[in-house]
Amino acid sequence: xxxxxxxxxxxxxxxxxxxxxxxxxxxxxxxxxxxxxxxxxxxxxxxxxxxxxxxxxxxxxxxxxxxxxxxxxxxxxxxxxxxxxxxxxxxxxxxxxxxxxxxxxxxxxxxxxxxxxxxxxxxxxxxxxxxxxxxxxxxxxxxxxxxxxxxxxxxxxxxxxxxxxxxxxxxxxxxxxxxxxxxxxxxxxxxxxxxxxxxxxxxxxxxxxxxxxxxxxxxxxxxxxxxxxxxxxxxxxxxxxxxxxxxxxxxxxxxxxxxxxxxxxxxxxxxxxxxxxxxxxxxxxxxxxxxxxxxxxxxxxxxxxxxxxxxxxxxxxxxxxx
Length: 322
Description:
The chain is of the alpha+beta class. It folds into 2 domains: 3-116, Rossmann fold, CATH 3.40.50.10330; 132-286 and 309-317, Tumour Suppressor Smad4, CATH 2.60.200.40. Helices cover 29% and strands 34% of the residues. Strand 8 and strand 9 (185-198) form a beta hairpin. The radius of gyration is 20 Å and the shape is elongated.
């Protein structure tokens, strides 16, 4: 990390909770030393977007993004083909990738972790050609993201906003026909939700144990009646969903989702909600991103070593995965 470009989202939750200039100074001082050149920029809005989009060019070898999953997702797309390394300071509300790699949420601890981090190559995926790093969902999952954004605009307390978002998501969600093609093998479902992840959720609490399996996993929550829906929701919260027969898992390297008679659909990808053209074509991009990984922590995803990926047969999988 000889030359670091650090882009901090001035509107991120952690920055708003503290003095912004204090945060900028802590990051600059914490990453300085050992011959490194550190350029720390505190930006917001369009300035931040422009800076992240331009971060794939320049003399710096490493780009560190301080924000939530939206900022990280934009950086993932902007660094494509640049051979630069990405680092994450988890300063936002959602920090999916940062959580998987074991980045501390405390700012001082996160800075120390970046100083001690090593570079690893992790998998990404594409949705209709656009790269993302962790998850993409439709049905209940997309409605949850949509409702959360509405609650945010009301500027409510965070926990109250999440509760209201969940109520709105349940009211808006319904059964839909879903056509799935996994590596050429077709499947049909009556579903209320579908969630696709880059590699499998084999860690605790909807986390990935590895980031370099080289596969996509699709989890479909089938519509099996009101009581089954409530049980599926409870199992998701309790992290016992692998044993729920109403949640079907498939793995593959290319997964296509289609909804008959629907030209577009709401999709939440890495926490960002948008209307996507159908069908949704997902492809795995193995070891596509150089990422700063902090020293090993309990429960953190692994990337080193040889990984035996599941066969991409489109075979239905249910129950526990060893």
